[in-house]
Amino acid sequence: MRLSRYFLPTLRENPAEAQIVSHRLMLRAGLVRQSAAGIYSWLPLGLKVLRNIEKIVREEQNRAGAIELLMPTIQSADLWRESGRYEAYGKEMLRITDRHEREMLFGPTNEELITAIFRDNVKSYRDLPRNLYHIQWKFRDEVRPRFGVMRGREFLMKDAYSFDLDKEGARKAYEKMFVAYLRTYARMGLKAIPMAADTGPIGGDMSHEFIILAETGESAVFCHKDLVDYDILGTKVDFEASLTPIIERWTGLYAATDEKHDAARFAAEVPAEKQISARGIEVGHIFYFGTKYSKPMGAVVAGPNGESIELEMGSYGIGVSRLMGAIIEASHDEGGIVWPESVAPFKVGLINLKAGDATVDAAAAKLYAALEAAGVETLYDDTDERAGAKFATMDLIGLPWQVHVGPRGLAKGVVEVKNRKTGERAEVALDDVVARFT
Ligand code: ATP
Ligand code: MG
Ligand code: MG
Ligand code: MG
């Protein structure tokens, strides 16, 4: 993409309304613009990152055996009356009336709808287990939308729903999602710690929130320090085999959110120097809830002897749009965003340091074409801004690599390659540039 033809409205100054760094940088780097309180438009650069986050989420859901579908944003109120949640949900639910006076709502989550779809289409135990998910916009009329996309009213969520014949099956489904979540966050360069979370009236140990430690987080959390250094990507995962050993390793050390925190246990189980008591961002939440929806909604299947079995269910959410804020909170510096390569909107930012100079223009254009031809996504700054401003913009938008093309280097047949994260710079011969990124 040539910057001269792109749509990238960046801001020099810090917007006054943004209280935390990720919100400031998302506005300054031209990723989003607020349309109404807690409702955002995704500008081209932000949309590319959102799609990259989505892609990782999707790949890991598929790898764990979940199946993608797509449910609508608008749902019927009657469905929610079946589960009893229409009245219970309260003001966070955006209620809508259509032209025929039918009561509708903008879905804040999808347990009812997926249970109805499953109930109406699956009749036999032979068709279980299944896990269905979608990546769809949700609306929650948050009292205090804030911190940009971190707590929006309209936000993108991946939500999966598992259907099993018994509790043992539900546990397996839960463990698959647990491990899929660890992999998902790790691939985005995040250290998300699974923490025991409140299960509500169902009880048991099958609810975890995935938490990124950050001062600006809205939850108070407590955990063992060693969890921060646990790494899942080095572990070979077979989703067909038992995942219990992995789960036991991750749940073997103390980690709990505020509601589940037990100060006495924390003190007894975790040595003082290993105690982390911090703030965190909830980027995901997995939950086993048994027959909470299948029972009132009549979601049953016929068992091997014709008996009727109420479905055991769980739900599994990832805050896809919130993740963009969380990634920036975890990865930025004075100059701006530092995208992990896996979610970066472009891999390379190519800077023409002297636009208008025939030699530099030709060399930069040739390099740009070669990078694109090699499949290296490149944002080419071909504008006539001065070099200093170009460097600042490139640092702000945080592409992992920069290539600086100027007359001094070209005289020696080289360009400068800069690593955004480490700041390291290297002179690279023109002919070797593409190979560095493929
Ligand atoms: P929170 O405690 O932050 O209000 P929640 O517990 O109400 O979140 P869940 O119902 O567990 O949220 O939804 C699954 C995921 O969706 C959350 O873990 C979070 O990452 C994301 N999410 C929830 N509410 C919002 C929101 N208002 N804006 C952006 N993402 C959200
Ligand atoms: Mg909430
Ligand atoms: Mg929560
Ligand atoms: Mg939650």
TrEMBL record:
Homodimer. Pfam families: HGTP_anticodon, tRNA-synt_2b. InterPro entries: aa-tRNA-synt_IIb (IPR002314), aa-tRNA-synth_II (IPR006195), aa-tRNA-synth_II/BPL/LPL (IPR045864), Anticodon-bd (IPR004154), Anticodon-bd_dom_sf (IPR036621), Pro-tRNA-ligase_IIa (IPR002316), Pro-tRNA-synth_IIa_bac-type (IPR004500), Pro-tRNA_synthetase (IPR050062). This is Proline--tRNA ligase. Belongs to the class-II aminoacyl-tRNA synthetase family. ProS type 2 subfamily. One of its GO terms (molecular function) is proline-tRNA ligase activity. It catalyses: tRNA(Pro) + L-proline + ATP = L-prolyl-tRNA(Pro) + AMP + diphosphate. Its EC number is 6.1.1.15. The gene is proS. Residues 38-340 form the Aminoacyl-transfer RNA synthetases class-II family profile domain. Keywords: Aminoacyl-tRNA synthetase, ATP-binding, Cytoplasm, Ligase, Nucleotide-binding, Protein biosynthesis. It is found in: Cytoplasm. GO terms for cellular component: cytosol.
